[in-house]
Amino acid sequence: MGPRGWAGRAGAPAPARTCLLPLLLLLLLCAALRSLRASPGSEVNLLDSRTVMGDLGWIAYPKNGWEEIGEVDENYAPIHTYQVCKVMEQNQNNWLLTSWISNEGASRIFIELKFTLRDCNSLPGGLGTCKETFNMYYFESDDEDGRNIKENQYIKIDTIAADESFTELDLGDRVMKLNTEVRDVGPLTKKGFYLAFQDVGACIALVSVRVYYKKCPSVIRNLARFPDTITGADSSQLLEVSGVCINHSVTEEAPKMHCSAEGEWLVPIGKCLCKAGYEEKNNTCQVCRPGFFKASPHSPSCSKCPPHSYTLDEASTSCLCEEHYFRKESDPPTMACTRPPSAPRSAISNVNETSVFLEWIPPADTGGRKDVSYYIACKKCSSHSGLCEACGGHVRYLPQQTGLKNTSVMMVDLLAHTNYTFEIEAVNGVSDQNPGARQFVSVNVTTNQAAPSPVSTVKKGKITKNSISLSWQEPDRPNGIILEYEIKYFEKDQETSYTIIKSKETAITADGLKPGSAYVFQIRARTAAGYGGFSRRFEFETSPVLAASSDQSQIPIIVVSVTVGVILLAVVIGFLLSGRRCGYSKAKQDPEEEKMHFHNGHIKLPGVRTYVDPHTYEDPNQAVHEFAKEIEASCITIERVIGAGEFGEVCSGRLKLQGKREFPVAIKTLKVGYTEKQRRDFLGEASIMGQFDHPNIIHLEGVVTKSKPVMIVTEYMENGSLDTFLKKNDGQFTVIQLVGMLRGIASGMKYLSDMGYVHRDLAARNILINSNLVCKVSDFGLSRVLEDDPEAAYTTRGGKIPIRWTAPEAIAFRKFTSASDVWSYGIVMWEVMSYGERPYWEMTNQDVIKAVEEGYRLPSPMDCPAALYQLMLDCWQKDRNSRPKFDEIVSMLDKLIRNPSSLKTLVNASSRVSNLLVEHSPVGSGAYRSVGEWLEAIKMGRYTEIFMENGYSSMDAVAQVTLEDLRRLGVTLVGHQKKIMNSLQEMKVQLVNGMVPL
Ligand code: AMP
């Protein structure tokens, strides 16, 4: 009867037809629904009434309640639609029972109902019984034999009402009002369940029933595979699921995700990484191809083998180094393979007594590494046999022998007068993997004499009221034959008045002392190299005067005191009369002892050796043979001509002396047909050179005078003359290397000036340079030096003078001194720093003389450190006494070498005058009129008096002030010291830049 209840206004009699209209519309809808039939990724259907091709097997109860409409869709698939419409009849209770549905392990299931429900208002009559809802129930059971379930055993899921009910009007409009309702049930505890739909008097068509559960579908996330996971029973439950790393991947941190009740994966934790040799691509781990590698799971992808490495295999975790290339254990596999460095370059040495300073340039090839350090091997070589042995432990290396990071080192405590070979080896992190490839540069040096070390043990001997006897031991390192000892003593706390005794013995007695008084003694030794340092202070006391005889004892004390006083007075007067700064008198002593008393003064000892002018010999041949060894011509092999001298060719060759290894030499020859004067002048140079023995003076091997041609044989200097060498290598050296060259020249010149020799023709062309960049002063001669120099020009007074290198006083009135050599040295500095530029360029000699006379000076060479240019200007002081001495120049250059940052300040390029000469004036003379004015100007007026009292009364004097002087003057505040020094520096820089007007 129910379906008839669906009758429209047309009042069609057949139940099938009654439903026809909605059913057509349903068909249309079904096509659309079928396309969605595949459950969404996260839903798994347990039942879908529309996909069941045969009988659904559902049971209606009572039989005339729900009925199935056997329709088919456009594909002739059956549409299982159940309908009931007994709205006119009272007390309806129509059940529709599904067959058993397995829950497939899901504990929460969803039921989606699609149905239409007729609006009771649209039905004629029967309003009293018409319902617009139906009920849905379930019953759990583990198997299918639950068909006899009683109504009251079912558990109600919900009463289902339509969101939309349809009226006849709606039908007319062909608007389908299909309701979809979803309910969920859980937790389920059995294997399956039945559903039941109860109608109590509505007009319903149940179009489809879909039962499903939700799952989180299998997924790969962070290289871990997570399995299909059925959602939890609770609608808010998150299930924690562990993932499994995919092939060729490893666990970085245990991978986990959470499966939500809605079937979504949430909150991934942890991850897997492709193992070494594999890289991630599209959620998989792909093998690294040959030529590529991946060292660790953490590297993001396969990388190309770094330079100098390769791999022929797939899945490489590292690459192999090419031949001769290596990898240090700690090198990362991504780093290129490297090799040991090449040898360091351009090593230069500076010898200072028994210390050697070495400097070099880093190797051209560092082997591709940054960890280059240097190792110094030291060998001591016999000058006779040429054999070398390891130096042994006595040599100290500053800062160290191995692992040197800087390109310089100082060796101290070497033996005096010894040939050493230092091998400087560059080492890097892979050097030890290829010991055969080690490369080094070697430097040969000969040390000079060292001063003796201080006396360390002093013992007291007999002590009386007026005398103290002492004895001591020779210093640990005498470094030569001890010529004498100097014993200085004074009464304790009376240091300004002291006595000096000289003794050749290791014991003395100091007498004439006060009884019962403490005396302080210090001893030092002297060798040919000069004095060593004083020993520490030793304090001894004279015996006291016995009380009983005190009266008598006063007399000798007074006598002694008076005697000492008289002696001291005599000493002072004697010295004043003889024009010396301090006095001495020979006391009655052991003839081996010499005693001097001092008061606020000191004695300068005369130089150990002096130069002897060969002119003073009546027979010049005698001079030659005194100072030069005669060599047999057969010992010399001449190889090639390397230059032309005034007297003949200069050749290179080899010298083989008996018992010695053959070594390279330069040979100057005297051309045939020479006059006797020429022969004398030629050999004069050897007579002079032969007197010198210094690493920065060209060394004379000997002369050949007994056969022809007459020859002078000297050490061979591979790089020839300095000016040509610098021009050839313009811009190739570090400032330190240039300063090293200058230091060598200054050291040679200091030696010459100490010997009392004035060079007169010091210029870069007369300096020779060897393969280690050691510079040596050469070209010694008498009058002929200047005759032979093409740079020398005749002056109005008739002499021939190299104008550009010569001090004004030497040009004007031939006043050649070591101070005029210092002027020339300043010009050599300028030549060196400008890589062999011609001083004063193309100016004429006359213009040069005039400009210099007027106070103009050469401007700073390009990129010249300010400290060096200042030194040049100091060398070019008009007043020769104001020029620095060579020993001061050497120590200043040493200071600069030790502290290379002091060379960083360059003469300001913008204010460098490129082709004009710089006006030169003493510091500050233009800027401040007096020391007081200057100090006031920098707010340091409070020190004016102290400056004046200590002799700094002019700005010229002030210019010489050092930091030490300031401290001595009592300027102890660091801020004040800085202010004064900065102001002085500023004035000097202004001067350097030619900014201070004359
Ligand atoms: P001199 O006659 O001393 O000026 O020498 C002429 C040239 O010969 C120099 O300019 C140098 O190029 C070369 N010469 C002289 N002495 C040596 C040496 N000891 N070693 C190498 N080259 C030298």
Automatic annotation (TrEMBL):
What enzyme class is recorded for this protein?
transferase
Q: EC number(s) per UniProt? A: 2.7.10.1
Asked whether the UniProt record includes Nucleus among its keywords, one would answer: no
What residue stretches are annotated with the Eph LBD domain?
43-221
* Matches recorded under InterPro entries: Eph_TM, EphA5_rcpt_lig-bd, Ephrin_rcpt_lig-bd_dom, Ephrin_rcpt_TKs, FN3_dom, FN3_sf, Galactose-bd-like_sf, Growth_fac_rcpt_cys_sf
Q: Which residues form the SAM domain?
A: 926-990
What is one GO cellular-component annotation here? dendrite
Residues spanning the signal sequence: 1-38
Q: Which residues form a coiled coil?
A: none
In which compartments does the protein localize? Answer: Cell membrane
> Active site: which residues?
D761 (proton acceptor)
Q: Which PROSITE patterns match?
A: EPH_LBD, FN3, PROTEIN_KINASE_ATP, PROTEIN_KINASE_DOM, PROTEIN_KINASE_TYR, RECEPTOR_TYR_KIN_V_1, RECEPTOR_TYR_KIN_V_2, SAM_DOMAIN
Q: Which UniProt keywords apply?
A: ATP-binding, Cell membrane, Disulfide bond, Glycoprotein, Kinase, Membrane, Neurogenesis, Nucleotide-binding, Phosphoprotein, Receptor, Repeat, Signal, Transferase, Transmembrane, Transmembrane helix, Tyrosine-protein kinase
Residue ranges of the Protein kinase domain?
A: 636-897
GO BP term, pick one: axon guidance
**Which cysteine pairs make disulfide bonds?**
C85-C203, C120-C130
The UniProt transmembrane annotation reads: 555-578
- Name the PANTHER family for this protein: EPH RECEPTOR A5 (PTHR46877), EPHRIN TYPE-A RECEPTOR 5 (PTHR46877:SF13)
Name the record gives this protein: receptor protein-tyrosine kinase
Q: Which organism is it from?
A: Zonotrichia albicollis (White-throated sparrow)
